[in-house]
């Protein structure tokens, strides 16, 4: 399958997207891409209501807050119908960086294990010192 060039990408305005916010036609914007999720409503693991609340608008922040899996991100590509028109991109929140961590990411290991371990040691030491004073 050949990749589309930027000229071949269909662009949608915010106004067009906002017309698709019911169960008959459900569109959302993720990272400035437009997705038609109408056929996915009943299959969504979080329930149809979650997508309905985001319909017709931007859903990037909520999508990233839930830290969707790599599989969910791949599946979402199958529902992509185009991109938000460049003139409207500044009117939506700047796309957040993807929050997926990899095995190669040292910051993930650091923040998830080292900092909590040091904090726990500090609390234990303070507790011991407090108990020794009594």
Notable features of this structure?
134 residues; alpha+beta; five-stranded mixed sheet; 6 helices
Tell me about this structure.
With 134 residues, the chain is of the alpha+beta class. It has a five-stranded mixed sheet. The relative contact order is 0.15. The radius of gyration is 22 Å and the shape is elongated.
Please report the number of helical segments.
Answer: 6
Spatial separation of the terminal alpha carbons: 74 Å
Low-confidence stretches: 95-105
Strand order of the largest sheet: 1-5-4-3-2
Portion in strands: 5-15%
Secondary-structure topology with pairs:
Layout: E1 11-12, H1 14-18, E2 21-22, E3 25-30, E4 33-36, H2 48-54, H3 60-65, H4 70-77, E5 80-84, H5 86-89, H6 106-133
Short description:
This protein is an alpha+beta fold and 134 residues long.
């Amino acid at each position: 399958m050949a990749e589309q060039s930027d000229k071949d990408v269909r662009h949608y305005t915010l106004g067009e997207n906002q017309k698709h916010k019911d169960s008959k036609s459900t569109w959302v914007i993720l990272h400035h891409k437009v997705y038609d999720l109408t056929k996915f409503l009943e299959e969504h693991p979080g329930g149809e209501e979650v997508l309905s609340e985001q319909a017709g608008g931007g859903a990037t922040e909520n999508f990233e807050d839930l830290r969707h899996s790599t599989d969910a991100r791949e599946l979402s590509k199958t529902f992509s119908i185009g991109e938000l028109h460049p003139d409207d991109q500044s009117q939506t929140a700047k796309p957040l960086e993807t929050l997926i961590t990899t095995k190669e990411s040292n910051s993930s290991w650091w923040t998830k294990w080292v900092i909590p371990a040091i904090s726990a040691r500090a609390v234990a030491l303070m507790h011991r010192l407090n108990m020794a004073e009594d």
